[in-house]
């Protein structure tokens, strides 16, 4: 790769899916093989770019020091120009998005990409929005990328039609439009009081906000926090998540696991930048709220996985608990535990996406009507479960069932944080980090440890129950036919979970260094503003 192309590496995860989606809108629906090939090429390019940026972030800048790759659009430098920032946290998120997005697309190629119109264009626009949200360096463009992401998710949630999806989609759209309204109001208040939207510029100006303007600034930040807590599915603002995710098609539900983590990412990014100990009177703003809501989300998610009667809803509640775990650690203000929380979030997201894909296969022949065979427009949409032009290439029982069962067991153990897999490594890192603090936070740390342990055992009990019903008690005439793309997608996600386990030391070290980088917001500000303060 030439040096000139390397300079533009940061913008590729945004511009490539945008161009490809625009091209697909010009193609007829019958050209699905061309669309599939183009989507795969784009996802492969995004994955390669994400890994290159991740490797660069892990090595650091000159002398091995932590730094951030800053890309100035139009060569207009921050804070006046639009910048994309690839640091340790954003590249970690970018790599996670690329892996889950590629797996969801591969799984969809077996059936779901032909269950409705414009699937590939919407999918790539969703990828563009998520990538832009984790790379952007200012609040206004964060809003723009959020809206692109959400607009594409509205169409993807309804993909395949059916009354269940329409009902879930109406609530999902209403809630997210409300969150977008809060987002705009919060951004307006912050800009009106500080006069800046660039995140690094905001972090530099917060300590110097006039006393008479600070209350209005903190009000704007609180409204922004509500918007992001809705998107992060924090209790009680995230009650919509299990129903919406369980109604979506399997590949869409898998990639939707990323959306709540984007909300967590923004809360983590802004809280560490704007409310660090040196930010004046606003230091630590909202930390206690994040702690309480994070723990409440974990408790609610743990109770939900036990009470849920469908596997898809169990996974939805587990996704909520995963988000709550990171929010609680951020709210507790324990920098030592932040690395373990990031590691756990990565592993649980990969495993939850795999479980959504497995769940669809398990219920495929048992509850077809609930998944989407009752399409509203049978003359327009192709039922992915009745298509007779797709050759069955998978194997039936017992081999497919045994392999799928192994995938399910591994993913369940990761989500439930059972040893020796990656989920356990992440939570163990959290517990060690919490216990290293012998100060006033120690009693709260024990409460966090107890609640996270409860969540792990609740998730294990629920997933074991569904595993027994789905595999050991399966009727002999209810065979599983799994297509090759489906095996590849699930196997890829499980392989990533196993890699995080085998390379747990190196991966956890990266996550811990990321947590340490976040506790030094001055380095981020200096990298973005390049000494213009």
Q: Whole-number radius of gyration?
A: 22 Å
Taking pLDDT < 50 over at least 5 consecutive residues as the criterion, the unreliable ranges are 367-381, 390-397
Oligomer: single chain
Shape: globular
**Biggest sheet: strands side by side, in what order?**
1-2
Beta-strand content bin: under 5%
Distance N terminus to C terminus? Answer: 34 Å
Total number of strands: 2
Class of secondary structure makeup: mainly alpha
Element-by-element helix/strand order: HHHEEHHHHHHHHHHHHHHHHHH
Portion of residues within helices:
over 70%
Q: Largest sheet at a glance?
A: 2 strands, antiparallel
Task: Report mean pLDDT, rounded to a whole number.
Answer: 84
How many helices does DSSP assign? 21
What does this structure look like?
This protein has 533 residues and is mostly helical. Helices cover 71% and strands 2% of the residues. The protein has helices at residues 3-7, 12-24, 32-59, 88-108, 119-135, 139-157, 163-194, 199-205, 211-231, 241-247, 250-274, 287-307, 311-332, 335-362, 368-373, 399-415, 422-435, 442-472, 484-502, 504-518, 521-529, and strands at 69-72, 83-86. It has a two-stranded antiparallel sheet. Mean pLDDT is 84; it is low at 367-381 and 390-397.
Keywords summarizing the entry:
533 residues, globular, two-stranded antiparallel sheet, 21 helices, mainly alpha, single chain, 2 strands
Summarize this, please?
This protein has 21 helices and 2 strands. It has a two-stranded antiparallel ribbon.
